[in-house]
Amino acid sequence: MANAGSARLIGELTFPEVSQRLSKTSILCLPIGSIEQHGPHLPLNTDVVLAEGVTRLIVARWGEALDLWQLPTISVSLAREHEWAPGTMSLSIQGMTAYMRDLGREIARSLPVRNLMIVNGHGGNRGILEVLAQEMRSDFGLNICVFHPAALADTNADGAAPEIHGGKNETSMMLAIAPHLVRRDQIATLKNPPEGDAVRTTILQRGVTWPWSTDDKRIADTGVIGDPSASSAEFGQSIIDRVVETAGAVLKQLLDNQRR
């Protein structure tokens, strides 16, 4: 049997071990996902599975060298763009702000660690996490960054079908991490990918932000923005490998920020 805490999970430590094994220069890794529709072929917890799985691999790769520790996953976040679909759950902006601020306060109070990397598995969280990172640094003294694995994948922004939600990238990553959760037979039920120009002007337009929803037929088919038909576990693994290696440089920069 593995020793308790061997996976570098904060929750598996005893309270005396917290003081023995963690220090000011340790790094906490916090996965944040979402419970939201991902089309007919991916489960509601896709972002949770990916955020938690990628964080686990980052900790496995860099944990000993950089003293990483994984916090429990936040599963429900901001997902109003998917609220038309049964099963989607979303906090309010006020609720997410209060939750994250309370969590930051508790980290600073209960642990000797002051370094925090948030691993964000849901693109809809990006804006609020950027603002909250500023507050959590200023108000609680946390040395913090937010890591967005999906942004490291090729979004195919200039191609026919930009990859935004439930398409080739996410489906491939799920095939690599949790293939048993992918309903492969349902991929064939999707129609042709949404027209690229509509996606670019609604979601990817530089200089303008538009509120959008995945039930908008101009940009999505059955909640999917992208084309999962060419998904593969091999492609998903290549994305994950790139994310894990890139995380090393981010973590080293985080430690350098603390030293400075």
The CATH superfamily bears the name Creatininase
Shape: globular
Average pLDDT metric: 94
How would you sum up the major sheet? 4 strands, parallel
End-to-end separation: 41 Å
Give the CATH class. Answer: Alpha Beta
Order of helices and strands: HEHEHEHEHHHH
CATH architecture level-2 label: 3-Layer(aba) Sandwich
Strand order of the largest sheet: 2-1-3-4
| CATH topology (level 3) name | Rossmann fold
Radius of gyration: 19 Å
Q: Note the total helix count.
A: 8
Classify the beta-strand content into a percent band.
5-15%
Verbal overview:
The protein is globular and about 55 Å long. The protein has a four-stranded parallel beta sheet, with helices on both faces. The chain is built from eight helices and four strands; from the N terminus they run H-E-H-E-H-E-H-E-H-H-H-H. Helix 4 links the parallel strand 3 and strand 4. The mean pLDDT is 94. It has a single domain, classed as Creatininase (Rossmann fold). The longest helix is centred in the last third of the chain and has 27 residues. With 260 residues, it is α/β, with parallel strands linked by helices. Helix 2 crosses helix 8, helix 3 packs parallel to helix 4 and helix 5 packs across helix 8.
